[in-house]
Each structure stands twice: as structure tokens, then as C-alpha cells.
Recover the amino acids of this structure.
């Protein structure tokens, strides 16, 4: 399969690139800054030279996403899987009285508008696949049922990402394209911190099983965890 993964420089995205390439897929690894690719991602590129393409794609910048689309189109005529993984968390410690709206806007631009831009521009390639799938990496923080009084920018961005997923799930179903919002679990990455219970490898393994259709997802639920279990909306 041909798979595009955003935010592939480190964390979950980087591990997903590794696993997808090891499974024999062609991987387009989107990175925010092509001039500062991590040594780990570069090592993977060296290992799977003919399968991994590192593509500059800052999901905060529509021109960068458009340019990335042209670069991927030069290599491949279609895309089977798009994993919108790039994300940031900011303002964790702020109470509602302290919310910084510049910070808020940046979180929305990356966590919500970023995936929307990538879908907007890459749709022509997904439409050419027989089994197109969009996986938006979300978070339990975006669950209405479990809303907690904190992480305002991040949680609201992920709740909106879940809504966007519901929209494209219906809006694109005539094209045979499926869409899921996946909570990857609390992982030991730069974002998740050292005390998280899951390694990014454990999470990526589950997500790859979803990508490879080894987990049968219940058609009714589009918000699931990395093992395909329904998450409360
Ligand atoms: P991470 O370790 O902080 O890595 C984030 C990745 O996103 C980095 O590669 C970063 O690139 C990239 N990125 C940030 N802004 C970008 C932009 N404008 N354009 C392109 N790439 C950008 O985070 P993670 O833990 O792997 O998280 C991956 C996803 O899982 C996120 O969507 C996150 O919200 C979600 N999630 C994580 C947890 C957790 O416990 N970690 C829990 C629930 C959900 P640079 O290296 O260039 O900065």
C-alpha cells in the first residue's frame, strides 16, 4: 500500500513509518522541516531507501501542504492510507481564566486545520485507491463524554477533529473512502512524557493492524482506540 504519515519526524509518526516500511509498504513521511530531519528518521530512510520518501510538509502552512502533494504525485499516482498524525499540545497548565488565544489558534491550526488541509489537497490521490482510508490521530481528550476542565486548546482541537472525521466519513463514503479518529493511548513520547503506560511501538502496532485491515472495525463506530475498541464520543 501507499501510505502518507504526517508529523513523521519523531514520536508515534516516526514509529509508524518504521513499521509500515518493515511491512513492505511505500511510505511518504511528512516532516515539518525538511532541513532538520531527526537522525532516527534519516536512519530509517537509509535502511528502506526505496520505500521511504521524506517529504517536507508543515501542516500549519497550506502552501507547504500543496507542494507536498505535488512531490508525492510525482512518485505515486495514488494513496491508500492517509494518517494525520502531526499534533501539538500547548497551554496544559492554563485555567480558563488564563487561556492564551494566540496559543489556542496555533493548536487549532496544527491539530484541526492541518488534517483538513491535508485531506483537501491529497483527496485526488486517495480517490484513485480502491480502499482509501483516512486515519486522524485524535485523543480521548476530545471526548464529550469524558470532558474535563483543562487542556482547553488541545481538547477542543481534538473534539473538532472528531467532528471533522464524522463529516468526511459521510461526505466521502460514495468514493469508498473510510475515515476513523483513533486515540493512540497515552504514550511515552515527547508529548506524552516518561510516565505514560504505552510505548509508541505498542500503539503503532495496533494502528498498523487497523491500516492492514487485520482488525475488523465496527461500522457504527468511527472513534476508536489503537486496538480498534470504540471510544466514548
Ligand atoms: P510528539 O512526540 O510531540 O511528536 C509530534 C510530531 O508532530 C513531531 O514529529 C513534530 O515535528 C510534528 N509536528 C508538529 N507540528 C507540526 C507541523 N506544523 N507540521 C508537521 N508536523 C508537525 O507527539 P506524539 O506523542 O508522537 O503524538 C502524535 C499524535 O498522537 C498527535 O496527534 C497527538 O495529539 C496524539 N496523541 C498523543 C498522545 C500521547 O500520549 N503522546 C495521546 C493522545 C493523542 P517536529 O519534530 O518537527 O517538531
Amino acid at each position: 500500500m501507499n501510505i502518507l504519515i504526517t508529523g513523521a519526524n519523531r514520536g508515534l509518526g516516526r514509529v509508524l513509518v518504521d513499521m509500515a516500511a518493515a511491512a513492505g509498504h511505500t511510505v511518504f513521511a511528512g516532516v515539518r522541516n525538511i532541513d532538520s530531519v531527526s537522525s532516527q528518521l534519516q536512519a530509517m530512510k537509509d535502511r528502506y531507501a526505496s520505500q521511504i520518501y521524506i517529504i517536507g510538509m508543515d501542516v500549519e502552512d497550506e502552501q507547504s501542504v500543496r507542494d507536498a502533494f505535488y512531490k508525492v504525485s510525482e512518485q505515486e499516482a495514488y494513496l491508500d492510507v492517509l494518517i494525520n498524525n502531526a499534533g501539538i499540545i500547548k497551554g496544559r497548565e492554563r485555567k480558563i481564566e488564563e487561556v492564551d488565544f494566540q496559543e489556542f489558534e496555533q493548536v487549532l491550526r496544527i491539530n484541526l486545520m492541518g488534517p483538513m488541509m491535508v485531506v483537501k489537497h491529497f483527496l485526488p490521490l486517495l480517490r484513485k485507491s480502491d480502499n482509501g482510508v483516512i486515519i486522524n490521530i485524535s485523543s480521548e481528550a476530545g471526548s464529550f463524554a469524558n470532558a474535563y476542565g483543562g487542556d482547553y486548546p488541545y481538547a477542543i482541537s481534538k473534539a473538532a477533529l472528531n467532528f471533522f472525521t464524522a463529516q468526511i466519513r459521510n461526505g466521502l463514503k460514495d468514493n469508498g473512502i473510510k475515515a476513523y479518529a483513533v486515540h493512540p493511548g497515552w504514550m511515552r513520547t515527547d508529548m506524552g512524557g516518561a510516565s505514560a503506560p504505552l510505548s509508541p511501538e505498542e500503539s503503532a502496532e495496533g494502528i498498523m493492524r487497523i491500516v492492514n485491515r487485520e482488525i475488523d472495525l465496527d461500522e457504527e463506530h468511527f472513534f476508536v482506540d489503537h486496538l480498534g475498541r470504540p471510544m466514548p464520543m
